[in-house]
Design brief:
The protein contains 21 helices and 16 strands. The chain has an eight-stranded mixed sheet. Helix 1 runs antiparallel to helix 3.
Amino acid sequence: MYKGTNASAGIGIGKVVVVEEKELVIKRETVTDSAAEIQRFKGALEISMKQTEELAADLATRVGEKEAEILNGHIMLLSDPMLTGEIENMIQNDHVNSEYAIESVCTMYADMFASMGDELMQQRATDMRDIKTRMQKVLLGVESVDIASLPEGTVILAKDLTPSMTAGINPAKVTGIVTELGGRTSHSAILARALEIPAVVALTGILDQVKNGDTIVLDGSDGSVLVNPEEAVLAGYQEKREVFLKEKKELEKYIGMPSVTKDGVHVELVANIGKPEDVDKVLQYDGEGVGLFRTEFLFMDRNAMPTEEEQFEAYRKVAVALDGKPVIIRTLDIGGDKEIPYMGLEKDENPFLGYRAVRFCLDRKDDVYRPQLRALLRASAFGNIKIMIPLVTCIDEYRAVKALVEEIKEELDEKGIAYNKDIPLGIMVETAAASLIADIFAKEVDFFSIGTNDLTQYTMSVDRGNDKISYLYSTFNPAVLRSIKRIITCAREAGIMVGMCGEAASDPMMIPLLLAFGLNEFSMSPSAILRARKMITGYSTQELQAVADQAMSFATTAEVENYMREFVNA
């Protein structure tokens, strides 16, 4: 048995088809007619745009508008005059061929995105490489693998799948996906979940162990993969697959049910979103609100900052659609690690610990932060909006933002503009510093939301994008668990709401611990809400106290994980 990262739940059983894209050899060549070469580039760009538009339209029809947005993002990248302008300038000034100019410029942007701390932002690197390869294939006359015409009962095995390749998969023929690279938050993994195809990613070296035609079984729920299993084992997984599909159907009965434990403890099951359009999925899966609206997506894939009016409309749209349900909106979380060209930011030597998030916003009050906070306050008149500040490490930062909010309130009062005068202002607790003084913060802020992705990274001093030390990156590490428990305890003692918007909020092995610790709100991908509700309604928080005490007594990550796995699967 091989073990990778669970990316899309379900059991996949089928015959292996190894998907290998032909490696492109890009050479620097000198061109004498730069104007003609620029026209050649523009021709390839136009064809690539058309191909992507057709793929996006097909995905929107087959799966949904939300999923097609990933490819629409590719279209925006392809039509970005800053990107295409740099390519054209390189062709013109350096007298190089289009393939080489595309390679240089797109790789520069991809490397920039790959160094970013936020996993979702890192997907821009994959997107950039995807459009780079697509344009180069057009120029070189290289055909892409026809992934849509694979035989029925196929399990795709690949080094990696780009979003455009994944979007072309026919779920009626492909029963599973296994890749050596990728992660749970990669766009390919997101599309696999949308297409409801079981997937296991980050399984290093699997291509050396498997060949075309092998029978493969993958469990997208726990990341396990078996190659050419015995008949009895295969039959067991086929039965497991039927059970999974039946349970999935049964989850629909949890739509409309309250998220209440057996002993009467009510929690909120809310969703993480990146765009106003994502609200459709929140409502589809009966989300009780939004626990994290990542506003940086409003600032990306464009050449100028969104205006206050544009931001106001985006926030208002979400608030109105959720009709009184809570909407926690995180203020801009960018900086040296999430460079947006028009912001004029210098590259940080250490972006994870640098000029970013609230540090950047407080330094750019007039042109960046005031317009966003004013838009948020104005939108609060149309629904239950809460403002959340990211990467807070000291109380001074919170007080500075609060003072700015109060100033803007006075300005709105003078102009007679409506807003929620009691709008809650909270913080993301995602640093070791914030965790250690959570008791101090809890006396002043209106709510906490624990960002486990960064909290784990900072607590363990682990770059979560570094495969060599990824074994240290676990929310089940005793140090991280103690931090989470302390944050929740401080919030509960102060009488403020405490939620969680990191990946751990939907982890089946973490949910029992969070219930025992007293977490009020669980924010996750919309598609995970019903399964989480089913789990929560089956537990008693009183009974879980003993489970949590036992889990907290262990000294290692492995001991905690093994214990919680046995408890959940019992």
